[in-house]
Amino acid sequence: MTIKRSIIETPGDQFFLPELPLYVNRVHESFEMLQHTHDFIEISYVAEGSGAHYIDNTSLPVSKGDLFFIPVGVSHVFRPSSIAQKKNLVVYNCIFTQEWLNQLFHSQLNGSKEEFNVLFTQATEQSTWLSFKERNGEFQPLFERLHFEYNAHRSGFMTILQTCVAQLLVYMYRSKMDFTPEASKASLQDLDSLLAHIRGHCSSPISLTEAAARLTISERQLHRQLKKHTGMSFMEYVQHARIEACCQQLRANDHKISDVAASVGYQDMKFFNQLFKKMTGVTPSQYRQQNK
User: Fold this and answer.
1) Where along the sequence do coiled-coil regions lie (predicted)?
2) I need a surface site. Which of 16, 39, 80, 117 has the fewest CB within 10 A?
3) Beta strand 66-70 pairing with 22-28
4) What is the arrangement of strands in the sheet containing 41-48, beginning at the earlier edge strand?
């Protein structure tokens, strides 16, 4: 069905600084925004709620975990499924110039000609939008980190932004294509499922022994796999997942910090505050103030 809409053009200079051709936000979608095109590339991730995404002349239902790669010149707009406050459609947007993406491919990805590079290069050249579906919670932590780093502007934040976008592109490709041989693919999917379980059950204690048993491998094997694929030990990953969950709560509500800490398994507030500052560079109170 063809959908006729008024379409406006949104220029990137509304968002970009001369020294920073990238912008990240987190928005509650409404019925006020018109369908629009833009002179930059956009990656949009549905973090909460459901609704519709109008792209060119197509209407797609969307819900948590949907992600879109939208090249220059493609018109689109998100709409929530309801105007009710309890049914918000929350979307993260990461936008950047074509030049910035070209530089990323050249520097961060070393000019790689791997298929995922080709996929996005062709999409931008042909103005073809792409859609993806999160499988194991791999997208949301990256968007949360992008949003935090962009707003905090701490030392080295541009390197982290580049790294996060590069990871996004790889995960997007993997979610659509067969990326590994079947045997190793199954193993990596099991590991991804375990990591998603840890992120989704932060308040529940889980030991390395229990985690290894879930994958029917030894603790030593699990430790090696985690180090290889996440760069972290088991306990470091658990702590990372818990602090990320705390960050999400601190942005979303005004609950007491001690209650937020307890909700992910931390009762010792001195330890929690030290760990939070070590991982984010700020205290929980400062993080909440910076992200209001």
Assistant:
1) none
2) 39
3) unpaired
4) 22-28, 90-96, 41-48, 66-70, 130-133
Spatial distance between the Cα atoms of 94 and 24, rounded to a whole number of angstroms: 5
Locate all alpha helices (DSSP H) within 130-201, ordered by sequence.
139-152, 157-176, 182-200
Q: How far apart are CA 208 and CA 211, in angstroms?
A: 5
- Which distant-in-sequence residues (6+ apart) come within 8 Å of 160 by Cβ? 145, 149
Q: Return the closest-CA partner of residue 79 out of 129, 5, 175, 130.
A: 5
Q: How far is 100 from 96, CA to CA, in rounded Å? A: 6
Q: What is the pLDDT of residue 2?
A: 40
pLDDT digits (tens, 9 = 90+) for 101-113: 988 887 755 555 5
Q: What is the pLDDT of residues 143-170, one digit of tens each?
A: 999 999 999 988 999 999 999 999 999 8
Please check whether residue 40 is in contact with residue 96, taking contact to mean a CB–CB distance below 8 angstroms.
yes
**Quick check: helix, strand or coil at residue 105?**
helix
HSE on the CB side for 123, CA within 13 Å?
23
Burial of residue 106 (number of CB atoms within 10 Å: 0-12, 13-18, 19+): exposed
